[in-house]
Every structure is written in structure tokens, then in C-alpha cells.
Amino acid sequence: MAAPDYGAVGGTFKIVRILQAVSLIAIIGMAANFISEMVQNNNTPSDVLVGTLSVTCISVIYCVITYILFIDNSLPFLITTGMDGMLLIALIVVAVVVGKPLSYVNCQIIGTSSVAESAAQLSDELRKGIENHGEKVTYSNWIGAKKSTCLEMKAIWGLSIALCILFAFSAICSVCLWRRSKTVPPKEIEA
């Protein structure tokens, strides 16, 4: 069964949905890895990461379902516009919450201090870890612990911002597709 022909707007909608799914799956992988590390250390995962994982899991399921419905020509475009708008708001919240402390962190200087300073910081972090065993991980402290963690969180932040743009764009495409599906083609005049 061939997909409906909605022209350039329909093609754009499909491409945007694919880009959304790829970005969401990348975020899910990184956030789940961080949560796994926290749980392996017998700590309660950060609310920021749990929230990010929840929003992205729901979003990727939504993207797959709407893509399938679009191909089957069963997608209710007006409802899709509203849902894209709601997911846009959720992703804006994710981007703001994830990015607020990250905007103050320079990942390139993490771990570049002198050996004495690094040893003192490490012993302090180990002491805190032993004292706080099993407690909730503080997101703002955790992102500055390692350079790789900081860079991956910045990747999640960047993908969240990109998803905001993509969901705004797919909402606009949905409105255009809804208008296009509601227009009546002109009648042919017989001569």
C-alpha cells in the first residue's frame, strides 16, 4: 500500500518524524545509561533524568504511531497538531531543566586541575559518596563529576533543543496537512 501523496509538506512531515524518532532514541540511550550507573552505585536517580527519560519514551511511541497512521492515511491532523504542541511544551521543560545548570559548566576544564587538587576533590567526593550511600543523586553536582558525563548531558540538552524545533515544525506541517485535506478540489467543467 502506497503512502498518501501530500506533496512537499507530507514529505517534510515524514522526514521530521524520522529525525524526531532518531533524536529521541539517542536521548533515551544516554539517559538510561546514566540512570543505570546511578542505580548500580545504589543511589536514587536524579529526578531530572527520570523526567527526561519519561518524556522521551512517551514521545518516541507517539512518533512511531503517528508515522504509521500517516502512511495508512488515517492520521487525524488536527489532533496531531495539539499533541505535537503538548509534546513541544514538555520538551521545552526538559530542555530548560536539563540546561539550566549545564549552561554554567565548561566541560573542557573538568579534570584538568593539578594532581593535588584532583586528589583532594576525589577524596572529598568518595567521602561524600560513602556518607550518602543510597541517597538521591544531585543533578547539578553529578554533571560536573566527569568530563564525559558533562559532554553527554550537553548532547542531551542540545538534542532537546533540536526536538523543540522539530516538534514546532511538525505541528505547523500538521496544520497545513489538515487544511489541505479539508479543501475540496475544484469541479471540472465539461465543455
Structural commentary:
By secondary structure, this protein is mainly α. 74% of the residues lie in helices and 0% in strands. It has six helices and no strands. Helix 1 packs antiparallel against helix 2 and helix 1 runs antiparallel to helix 6. The longest helix is centred in the C-terminal third of the chain and has 36 residues. It is elongated, with a radius of gyration of 22 Å. 25% of the residues are buried. The mean pLDDT is 84.
Short précis:
The protein has helices spanning 7-40, 47-71, 77-102, 115-131, 139-142, 147-182.
Rounded Rg: 22 Å
The helix content, as a percent range, equals over 70%
- Rounded mean pLDDT score: 84
Euclidean distance between termini CA atoms: 36 Å
Largest sheet: none
String of helices and strands: HHHHHH
Sum up the overall morphology in one term: elongated
Low-confidence stretches: none
What is the beta-strand fraction? under 5%
Helical segment tally?
A: 6
Number of β-strand runs: 0
Structural class: mainly alpha
